Amino acid sequence: MSIFSNRPKVSPVAAPEGTAAESATGPGDNPSVEKSDAQWRQELTPDEYRVLRQAGTERPYTGEYWDTHTTGVYQCRACGTELFTSQEKFDSHCGWPSFWAPLAEGTVRYIHDRTLGMERVEVRCATCDSHLGHVFEGEGYGTPTDQRFCINSVSLKLVSADDAGQ
Fold first, then answer.
1. Do 154 and 51 touch, CB atoms closer than 8 A?
2. How confident is the model over 31-44, as pLDDT tens digits?
């Protein structure tokens, strides 16, 4: 089922000041990793904190993984949950890493984001509720799902297949 059609009933969630966001009810609504703001600030770099915890966005073409073709698994930088693999990564030429699907159902959650006068779907880690990026549909990339998960590099940590085997 597309996350864009037949949307489940939505309920309000906390969003950064000046934004309008609604969360789809379902798996991941209650993250299993919960930390105080002070703990997140201590564990993350300022850039990681701004993106992961405050729903910021890194500038296009500046992130570590936007043009990476290394085989491996992309984890949430905040909690280590495996989110995407290189098998679903594709070159969208948008300046951020793009994937046509998450690693498995339930690894990410979706929030209907109405900030900046647009309707978008925010993608968050289902384990720690960190902001990852947004997902778009119907852009004509020819991917199996017709979706583009546009994810901030700073939200991810790539574990290469070579490193995982050691």
1. yes
2. 788 899 999 999 99
- Beta carbons of 26 and 8 less than 8 angstroms apart: yes
Query: How does pLDDT run across 92-118, given as a tens digit for each residue?
Result: 999 999 999 999 999 999 999 887 787
The per-residue b/e assignment along 77-108, b for 16 or more CB within 10 angstroms, e otherwise, is bbbebebbbbebbbebeebbbbbbbbbeeebb
Sheet holding 156-160, edge to edge: 82-85, 72-76, 156-160
Stated as kind and residue range, the H or E segment containing 51 is helix 46-52
Which entry of 79, 125, 128, 150 is annotated as an active-site residue? 150
| CA dist., res. 14 & res. 88, Å (int) | 30
CB 21 within 8 A of CB 122: yes
The verdict on whether 150 is a catalytic residue reads yes
Tally of helices (H runs) and strands (E runs) in the chain: 3, 11
Cβ(79)–Cβ(40) below 8 Å = no
Band (166; pLDDT cuts 50, 70, 90): low
Residue 162 CB coordination number (10 Å): 10
CA distance 156 to 63: 10
